[in-house]
Structures are given as structure tokens and as C-alpha cells.
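thought: fold this chain, then report.
action: predict
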Amino acid sequence: MAANVLNSPQAVQMSVFVVRAFVKMRSAFGDSRELSQKLVLLEQELKIRLNIHEAAIVEILQRIMTILDPPPEPLGPQPPEIGFHVKEDALPYRTRKKSA
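observation:
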């Protein structure tokens, strides 16, 4: 804009310099747009991978918790045990006291 107001070679050089700077900025932003699109795609892919891994980790932790803290046994009537069972009378065991 200075070249429009001032009619000097230095003002023209500055105007050309400013235009070239804007052209470089536009090309840099164009490159950064492509880069940002690639980064967005990479981020989406990584999120999908992380979601898969997080789901696997949660499943493993849930299985570990069921092993460490099994569910309580039901309080209702139990089915009869299968097999042959012998009920024996307990033998009376006595321990002798040592006489001193």
C-alpha cells in the first residue's frame, strides 16, 4: 500500500516484499492444511486402536476381578450331591492327662 501512496523505488520494493510474504504464507498454510488433515486421520486411527485395546484391558480386568472376588453362592435349596457317600460315626478320641 505504501507504493500506492509513495512513488519511490524503496516503497515499491517494500510492497513487493509484502506481497511475496503473503504468497509464502498462503503456500505454508496450504501445506499445513494437508498436514493437519493427515494428522486428523492419524488421530482417528489411533483412537480406534486405543478403543480396541482399552476394551481388551477392561475385559481382562473384569475376569481378574471375578477370579479374586467370586460371586456369592445362592442361598436357595441346593441340588443333592451326586455320588456314593458313607456316613460314619465319629470315634471318641480321648487324650490322657499325664499324671504327675
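thought: worth noting. The mean pLDDT is 80.
final: C-alpha cells above.
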